[in-house]
């Protein structure tokens, strides 16, 4: 395992291509099927494979990558994190001092916010045009990979809100993003006709007013 992780860590750098990072995520996904391997993935220091992965996702220095390629990579990463969240309890434990524990929450918030901006058309000021561009003319926008990413980010963020030992503190530096996107995400996802019960629950518990979210985080931080 350590040999494989060393290779993956070597391949994960700020100037790696999306294709290489996607292959690394595929290797980590295969490892996530084995509980004994999952518990060893976080190395608790700066060479942590998760830390390097999150830093790549946040910097996005592969300027030749297509938007679709980035969306598919982000979706692949979110699905990996969703699998790991069910298996790596110690990773999210309050005793975990690795920076990747904080970076996990912040990366999911950034991915969620970035995808909401794309779907909501903030850069063009036209949500309708943006949503139409997310899918082919023969299928609705909510069947696109971009919409799938938004939905899976919602579920992962909801899980982190419930289980991450320091969710509030980790999220605080990005509270402006969190407060901006939460009400709008609710509006966007409510347009999807086939939301699952878990998605409906996540919307109910996460997508509240900005003031409620801010107050809750202030209370958590002071407790």
Automatic annotation (TrEMBL):
| Domain of life of the organism encoding this protein | Eukaryota
Regions crossing the membrane: none
Q: Which GO terms describe its biological process?
A: DNA damage checkpoint signaling; DNA repair
Please state what the protein is called. ATR interacting protein
| Species the sequence originates in | Nothobranchius kuhntae (Beira killifish)
Origin organism lineage:
Eukaryota, Metazoa, Chordata, Craniata, Vertebrata
Gene giving rise to this polypeptide? ATRIP
């Amino acid at each position: 395992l350590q040999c494989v992780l060393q290779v993956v860590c070597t391949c994960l750098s700020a100037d790696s291509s999306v294709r290489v990072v996607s292959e690394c995520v595929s290797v980590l996904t295969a490892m996530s099927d084995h509980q004994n391997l999952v518990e060893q993935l976080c190395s608790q220091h700066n060479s942590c494979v998760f830390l390097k992965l999150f830093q790549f996702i946040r910097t996005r220095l592969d300027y030749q990558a297509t938007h679709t390629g980035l969306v598919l990579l982000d979706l692949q990463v979110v699905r990996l994190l969703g699998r790991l969240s069910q298996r790596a309890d110690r990773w999210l434990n309050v005793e975990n001092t690795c920076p990747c524990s904080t970076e996990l929450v912040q990366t999911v918030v950034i991915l969620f916010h970035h995808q909401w901006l794309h779907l909501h058309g903030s850069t063009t000021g036209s949500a309708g045009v943006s949503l139409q561009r997310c899918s082919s003319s023969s299928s609705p926008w909510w069947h696109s990979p971009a919409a799938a990413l938004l939905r899976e980010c919602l579920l992962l963020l909801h899980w982190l809100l419930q289980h991450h030992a320091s969710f509030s503190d980790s999220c605080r530096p990005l509270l402006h993003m969190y407060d901006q996107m939460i009400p709008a995400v609710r509006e966007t996802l409510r347009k999807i006709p086939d939301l699952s019960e878990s998605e409906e629950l996540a919307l109910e518990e996460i997508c509240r007013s900005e003031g409620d979210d801010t107050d809750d985080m202030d209370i958590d931080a002071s407790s």
